[in-house]
Amino acid sequence: MATNGLSRADVLEKVREHLSAELEIPLEQISEATRMREDLDADSLDLYELVMELEDTYGLSVSEEQAADIETVGDAVNFVSDRLGAAA
To answer: Is 3 left (phi over 0), alpha (psi -120 to 50) or beta?
Structure first.
């Protein structure tokens, strides 16, 4: 699949923006190392909505098992970047 010029930094920014808006947390408090549940207090519905956003935005399919492995913001970015072949 073509990356449409997306870089890993682009994906990171999109994930951070989504989480900031969805969870009403300042963008500067969200980094790659931020843990979804522990640091953002995201529940399973919040994580499901993030997965749906990634699927819609990037045309990906994410299984429940794959979604369960996404524990940090960086995990979500890696998941998308790996599947899109995004540039570093």
So the answer is: alpha
